[in-house]
Amino acid sequence: MTTTPVVRTPAPGVAPAPHVTPDVTPGTAPSEVPTGLWPASARPGPDGDVAVGGVSLTEAADRFGTPLYVLDEGEVRRRCRTYRAAFPPDKADVVYAAKAFLCRTVVRWVREEGLGLDVCSAGELLLAVGAGFPAERIVLHGNAKSPEDLRTAVRLGVGRIVVDSTSEITRLAALVLRGNRQPVMIRVVPGISAGGHAAVRTGTDDQKFGLSLTDGSAQHAIDRVLGQPRLELVGLHCHIGSQITAVKPYVAAVRRMVGLLARVREQHGIALPQLDIGGGHGIAYRPGERALDVPALAARVRAELVDGCTRAGLPVPRLTVEPGRALIGPAGVAVYRVLAVKRTGTTTFVAVDGGMSDNPRPALYGVRYAPRLVGRSSASPDRVVTVVGRHCEAGDVLADGVELPGDVRPGDLLAVPAAGAYHLSMASGYNLVGRPPVVSVDEGTARLLVRRESLDDMQRRDVGV
Ligand code: LLP
């Protein structure tokens, strides 16, 4: 997952080259489909087309319209299996963070692959359970859980609730029926700074999540939970940030968490059976970017956990990891149609029919993507352009400084890889454009998972006169 070798378009009539050609330099030329960035099933096709999961993106765009989100089922399942292999079920749970993207079919894929599910609201929870996900394999998170969130979780019997504040403890305990015990974990802030942007760094004391290790709040919450007969403290949790590409911060977090497990044992005489180290595993969005090495993460975290626990004389707790982006991000491709091309000053702007309403990440975190032309080949030399969305803000920029064929024009299709996580789950109704549909692709078949949001959908909520 750390390199982005490329596949080159074969000459017409020639069988595609083997998918991975590691000795080729990564690049963005439209004839290439960098692996690691694109789903492994991506294949260059005739006339500049690209197929994903055996489905032509051009045909999918014609059939379902644009903007369109394509999700490669095989890629999601393959990534789930990579995690299961790295974190084997006899020692660890892999829990998919639903906030990255959730719909009924994804719930089914994750269930079939043997993963758990991390949810953050009654909405995510009800969707998952309604689609057949076993409640006992669900973890509920949230720094501000509503009464409805907690009631629904207790009623449905979710496996674990992660306590994020002391005030939550009595509220939660009051909802548990006499004779029952709700398993809970405490979200601890271990004091480790990591993550792709300040907005997604959650491992230090200057942000809203969790209970601090350094000021004693975590220890206080542990005491409080242990004092509640209807709550069962099963372990500790931390989530240090998101889009992290190095293993080291996780190892450091494990060291601190094992220190706290040891203190709990000293003070209360109990060895907590579980440790959840959250998610945050980074992926590549552009050629040359690194993804977190998942097998290396698993090996080093395991080694640290076993060593630390052995030194402290603790039994090794069962580990949980909560990847979201790394399971679904690289399986998604966004397909847009170009609506306008114009030159302003020294910049050529290529404007597409989506933007910050379907992908707010560039506007929120200043990140950029690597779009490519699909659906026609071009002999025009590349030129450097800025790809923008259709929304009423200058910050609605998907990519800048990217090379596209010089004759890129309205009607062309642009495809954007690494679009599966935190795009549609954070989509908005801005400018009443309507949220795009999601289509799964696998072995040559495309299936509509989520239909396009229509003006009618939006108008139905607007009940004023
Ligand atoms: N567990 C907890 C408690 C979390 O808060 C998160 C993400 C995850 C797991 C999964 O993190 P992942 O493996 O997907 O990085 N909207 C931002 C990312 C926000 C992440 C929020 N929490 C983005 O687009 O980069």
Structure summarized in a few sentences:
This protein has 465 residues and is an alpha/beta fold.
Provide structural commentary.
With 465 residues, this protein is an alpha/beta fold. It folds into 2 domains: 2-73 and 330-460, Lyase, Ornithine Decarboxylase, Chain A, domain 1, CATH 2.40.37; 74-328, Alpha-Beta Barrel (TIM Barrel). It is built from 12 helices and 21 strands. It has helices at 57-64, 73-86, 104-112, 122-130, 147-156, 166-175, 217-226, 248-268, 294-312, 325-328, 361-365, 455-461; strands at residues 43-44, 50-52, 55-56, 68-72, 92-97, 116-119, 138-140, 160-163, 182-189, 211-212, 231-237, 274-276, 318-321, 332-344, 347-352, 372-374, 382-388, 397-405, 413-417, 438-442, 445-450. The strands form 3 sheets. Strands 4, 14, 15, 16, 17, 18, 19, 20 and 21 form a 9-stranded mixed beta sheet that branches. A hairpin with an 8-residue loop joins strand 17 and strand 18. Helix 4 (122-130) runs parallel beside helix 5 and helix 8 runs parallel beside helix 9. The longest helix is centred in the middle third of the chain and has 21 residues, at 248-268. The radius of gyration is 23 Å and the shape is globular. Residues 1-31 have low confidence and may be disordered. Bound molecules: ligand LLP. Residues 97, 99-100, 118, 141, 200, 239, 242-243, 278-281, 322-326, 361, 421-422 line the site of ligand LLP.
